[in-house]
Amino acid sequence: xxxxxxxxxxxxxxxxxxxxxxxxxxxxxxxxxxxxxxxxxxxxxxxxxxxxxxxxxxxxxxxxxxxxxxxxxxxxxxxxxxxxxxxxxxxxxxxxxxxxxxxxxxxxxxxxxxxxxxxxxxxxxxxxxxxxxxxxxxxxxxxxxxxxxxxxxxxxxxxxxxxxxxxxxxxxxxxxxxxxxxxxxxxxxxxx
Length: 192
Description:
The protein has 192 residues and is an alpha+beta fold. The chain folds into two domains: 2-127, no CATH class; 139-191, no CATH class. The protein contains seven helices and six strands. The chain has helices at residues 2-19, 34-49, 77-97, 101-112, 116-127, 157-168, 173-191; strands at residues 24-25, 30-31, 54-60, 66-72, 139-142, 148-151. The strands form three sheets. The protein has a two-stranded antiparallel ribbon with strand order 1-2. A hairpin with a 5-residue loop joins strand 3 (54-60) and strand 4. It is elongated, with a radius of gyration of 23 Å.
């Protein structure tokens, strides 16, 4: 079971590096979020390790659209993968320990630069982007007769506000009105 968790974590990091391309702006060649850049850097380190550790393959998905398949050789995670990431982190630490900001920045920048083939992958990531999921937890209420009632809320902004109202008894009429206005404005923009 531990090996499964390790494999899933490495696979998730490779995916995070690919999905992080959403936060890269090609026009300015800048990253908008440092942690997404770091995830991309780790993906680049994994790819550079070679020996079949990880591969990104362009495929056509069941829906007929372009997609990216991440292949990770679980047998090489503990050997090739661990060594590659460990060596990278050691180099970074040496630069930091010696106060070599120029050398450390140059090394890190070489990994965080986004080559043209990754811009093609970014286009696929952007085309397949879905709205961010919201997780709104249900509430339980103890009824006067001793039974427990489960209250569920929609997994959207309105459900989130309703959950707060139910939990804290606050007056959220104004935020609900603001939400309705924002949704109406967004709808108007999408029609225009």
